[in-house]
Design goal:
single chain; alpha/beta; Nucleotidyltransferase, domain 5; 3 domains
């Protein structure tokens, strides 16, 4: 019987799955849209992952990460819940042991993680401004009538990139229209857009932090060759994009779960056990001036998990 460990990374735009074996090899992975329904994304993803695994496979542990990690943990009865900084750093170190900087750009957020001797020494996250994320590029690709994949390919063909005002998506769009009206080639405008994203990332997110080589680029935007080229030019160093770049958070969660379980029985109740009706609600706690919003999830008429408070008054898991 094959024994594996499952990592699930639930983000605002995408939900990722990674399965590793006891030798910590990636044996299956999945990258799906969350589509505003994380519970359904988790359940449908588990169905697909089960199909990718051999019939006689036993899941010995499950870890969750991402902005929806608490929700995912409640749904799958996870053994481990970790933040994105830890899981992305662990995955990068697994493939590039000497990594000092991890750039992670997803659909609606971005991260910079700095490491020294394999330990995270600093990090920064952005989940407010879209100008340094994948949605920034996707929005402009739609406006140009091309796919996000074509946008990356055409950016690499640019010979004389045009400077685009990238501090805000609204300004970027109006500036791109202006540059098109001036007659600049579209490829040069597209690469200027990629440079604007990188400039915004380094100016606003890094903010005094210097990414040192080796640099690993993770997240969905790492597939964009234009953004990779722009980072390499800005940092004056090679930027590594791993084949597993899209699922590194889930990979890190699986690796940490593998290390933690150490032969202990898993809480995971099986792929079929998650196919029940879940309902999420929230309420405001008035026990103190913090007025925390407490999220809770119900299954079979009872509350199975709560989270979101600054204290442990309401939390159950």
């Amino acid at each position: 019987m094959d024994e594996v460990f499952l990592g699930i990374d639930v983000g605002s735009v995408t939900t990722k799955f990674a399965v590793i074996d006891r030798e910590e090899n990636l044996v299956a992975s999945l990258y799906n849209r969350t589509s505003g329904n994380p519970i359904e994304a988790i359940r449908s993803g588990l169905v697909e992952i089960q199909r990718l695994l051999p019939e006689r496979t036993c899941v010995r542990g499950v870890g969750t990460t991402g902005s929806g990690r608490q929700l995912a943990s409640a749904v799958v009865s996870a053994d481990l819940v970790k933040n994105e900084i830890t899981t992305h750093a662990v995955a990068a170190l697994h493939f590039v042991p000497g990594v000092q900087s991890v750039i992670d750009i997803g659909g609606q957020d971005s991260k910079l993680i700095l490491l020294y001797n394999g330990i995270v020494v600093d990090f920064a996250m952005n989940s407010v401004c879209a100008a340094g994320t994948g949605s920034f590029l996707e929005q402009q690709a739609n406006r140009l009538g091309i796919s996000i994949n074509e946008l990356g390919q055409r950016a690499t063909l640019s010979k004389s990139p045009v400077r685009i005002a990238g501090r805000c998506t609204v300004f970027a769009e109006s500036d791109m229209v202006h540059k098109q009206q001036m007659g600049h080639p579209v490829n040069d405008i597209i690469y200027g857009l990629c440079q604007a994203l990188v400039r915004n990332y380094l100016t606003n997110l890094a903010l005094g932090k210097t990414p040192l080589p080796p640099v690993v680029f993770q997240g969905g935007v790492a597939a964009n060759a234009g953004v990779v080229r722009a980072f390499e030019e800005a940092l004056e160093t090679e930027v590594t994009v791993l084949p597993q770049h899209e699922v590194m958070g889930a990979m890190g969660a699986a690796l940490l779960t593998r290390q933690q379980m150490n032969g202990q029985p898993s809480n995971f109740k099986g792929f079929d056990a998650v196919m029940v009706d879940y309902r999420t609600t929230s309420f405001e706690c008035k026990a103190c001036p913090n007025l925390c919003e407490i999220a809770q999830i119900r299954a079979a008429g009872r509350v199975i998990a709560r989270w979101g408070g600054r204290c442990e008054r309401w939390e159950i898991s």
